[in-house]
Amino acid sequence: MAARIGSGTVVSGLTASALAVVTLLALQARSSAHETTSTAGTPGASSSATATAPGKPSAKPKPVALPAHSGSGKRIVYALGAERVWLVDPAKPSDDRTFTVQPSPVDPLVGSYTVNRTDAGPYSGSDGVTVKNGVIFAQRGSAVIGFSSAADGTLPKPDPAKKTGGIRETLGDGQALFDFAPTGTKVVVVG
Fold first, then answer.
1. Can you give the residue range of the structural domain that contains 79?
2. Are 64 and 47 in contact (CB under 8 A)?
3. Domain harbouring 121, CATH code
4. Which of 147, 182, 141, 148 is nearest to 162 (CA)?
5. pLDDT digits over 115-148, tens only?
6. How many domains does the chain have?
7. Most CB atoms within 10 A, among 41, 52, 77, 91?
């Protein structure tokens, strides 16, 4: 005698299966959206992912070369024209990384500096934006210049009328720079 399965059991089973499939697809989509290429051991590698068509092999992004004459040893390199930062540590090349930033209305002068203050925050930046992971390294006139992330994760263009020195980065890049650069870390600014 065959066992009878009620329609409620069948519907419950199908619903559970459908939810499992939807959850799996959502996790795969989330993973794809957040996938980035590794920069381990490649000081000039980009931290951004390259999108490819389904079924095609993914192409590696072209490395972004560390600017010539950007110093030596452990340092942060900030290229004004490229609006890009490199975190370079010859002793730990697996920690090296590069990323773009949103420059401030007041740029630091080209030269070599050291981090003179850090603040995990959150706190109010000189432009009124709530920021975190502040790494301060220069001053130009009354503008204090440093790297930080907007606490809400945005990267809006700064108001050029406000003469501030907040160089903005994403929350992830900001955390990486903050962890990399305690007080005394060298910062090299190139054109």
1. 75-190
2. no
3. 2.40.440.10
4. 141
5. 999 999 999 988 889 999 999 999 999 999 999 9
6. 1
7. 77
